[in-house]
Amino acid sequence: MEFLSLLNFGFVQRALLAGLFIAVACSLLGVFLVLRRLSLIGDGLAHVTFGSIAIGLFLGFTPLYVAIPLVVLSSLGILKLIDRSHIYGDTAIGIVSSIGVAGGVLLVSLSRGFNADLFSYLFGNILAITRQEVVVSILLSAGVVGAVYFFYQDLVAITFDEECAAVSGIKTQLINRILVMLTALTVVLAMRVTGIMLVSSLLILPAATALQLARGFKLTMALSALTAIVAVLAGVLLSFLFNLPTGATIVILLFIFFIISFIVKKL
Amino acid sequence: MNALKVDDLSVRYDAGEVLSDISFTVGKGDYIGVVGPNGSGKTTLIRTILGLTQPLKGTISLLDNDIHSFRDWQKIGYLPQKLIGFSPQFPATVREIVALGLLAGKKLPRRLAAADEAAIDRALALLDITGIKNKLIGDLSGGQQQRALVARAIAGQPELLILDEPTTALDPDTREKFFAVLKELNSRDKITIILITHDVGNIGRYASKLLYLDKKIIFYGGFDDFCHSPEITEYFGEYSQHLICHRHDKTVTHSG
Predict the structure, then answer these.
(1) Which of A117, A206, A253, B190 is deepest in the core (most CB within 10 A)?
(2) Which letter does DSSP use for residue B171 in this model?
(3) Cβ of A162 and B91 within 8 Å?
(4) A215 and B50: CB-CB below 8 Å?
(5) pLDDT digits over B114-168, tens only?
């Protein structure tokens, strides 16, 4: 019964609740990102998040509130770079993410005293999530899921074939912007769960797992969400029980699920 | 009433002018075969007509509406030469892919209505792919994928259907059936068709008009004119003219 008694702890409840919502948001967006070969945008934006967190800590503001607008703006910057400079997506992601890291490192070296805080953002610590952060995470995750529901057909259409989607009257540029902005939001939120270093795993692994067993688009989305929910909930509880880092535990669980799906597909 | 009117159109890329002074009109119910050598601007012409490429000059009118104010995209069916960024892992079933052809003209969140399900079934049946409707698009052969994409293009029962080299991935038997389906859509459903093809040997059997493009219009008109014109013989040579004309069946009934 030790396992169930964990649920009586307020901080475990908060971690599970926030983790559940963030997992769903990440896993739904991940399907579109993986299929559009934009998986690494999560990594790139996570690097920008690192710089943004450093700015927040340096100036004494709540890092989450500094990171959200800065990372959203950076995501639009990546799109602009691709559009205007005619460079490949991975190059644009590389440029923006390296600026994020460079800025963060500069600020860390200029200051003394917030390196320990920054460490917790780098490697995640959802068990330390505050009540206010839980509310913000739930609201933003619900917003992301709502947006995916509302623009579902448009997102599927541009993911399958952007040109035909445009001829169908779908505003492809707008949908692309919405997709990267939603991704930026989820990356900032997921940072609390897995840490900046592992944030893209919540976007990529559930989607990659679901795609192994795909039998239709909606089913793939549902399977991706289920994989992420199970991994996050189990990861939070196991990490607390065995005193393991939560983010890394979740990622290892996700990887195990991926391997299982891979084997099941081959059977 | 015209399905398409192109007037004095020129398109320029960085490398130079791709299309020069293109003017032609497609009447409702016409079946136009667009042919020309590689790099002659066929795909650019189609992309410009659909508003995907901006012209240097000229005007385009779709279904009697200027392209800039055109909103009735549900009346246009389009099959591109190749899907940009298509992932073989794409997890949608054939039915889900065909359903994408019904999104045009719907308001967000663009949910399908009960009548749409019947339209999907009709398109699947027309392309003879009802049996594979629940298969994933990535699991199909090239020919089956192509038929699913054509089903998507016609699912909304468009007034104008534009296809860019749709028969490249098809074996001869499937290609024959495919042309027969297009002919049926044109003659029975009165759908205007613009078909870019390299299959010059077959186009004369089905299309009502031929547009020969080589950065400018070399010829636009009926097959009889094309096949019996001494000027065309002089321009193309007898062999090339014969390639297009030898299977042109004068008994084919054209609705245009």
Answers:
(1) A206
(2) -
(3) no
(4) no
(5) 999 999 999 999 888 999 999 999 999 888 888 899 999 999 999 999 999 888 7
